[in-house]
Design goal:
- By secondary structure, the chain is of the alpha+beta class.
- Helices cover 37% and strands 24% of the residues.
- It has 2 helices and 3 strands; from the N terminus they run αβββα.
- A hairpin with a 5-residue loop joins strand 2 and strand 3.
- It is flat, with a radius of gyration of 19 Å.
- The chain starts with a helix and ends with a helix.
């Protein structure tokens, strides 16, 4: 499928704006929170991780769910 010039230009502008936004965010003091769960719906958290801007882990812990983790989910996150 061909991409129209206007669509390409819009994509480039979006990429440029996203890059500018990300650069601005990296100059701030922030933390990144990531979780893994037992699935998408009615799920429970099985892992919590928090890292600082340099990638240093502040928290990385497993959480025991009260429900089973389906095999297809285990294949995704390996927990």
């Amino acid at each position: 499928m061909a991409i129209a010039v206007n669509d390409w230009e819009l994509g480039q502008r979006d990429k440029s704006q996203a890059t500018e936004w990300a650069g601005g965010m990296l100059s701030r003091d922030f933390r990144i929170l990531d979780t893994e769960t037992t699935g998408l719906y009615d799920a429970e958290i099985v892992e919590i991780a928090i890292i600082d801007p340099s990638g240093e882990p502040l928290v990385d812990t497993l959480v025991k769910p009260t429900i089973a983790i389906p095999d297809d989910v285990i294949r995704i996150h390996g927990i």
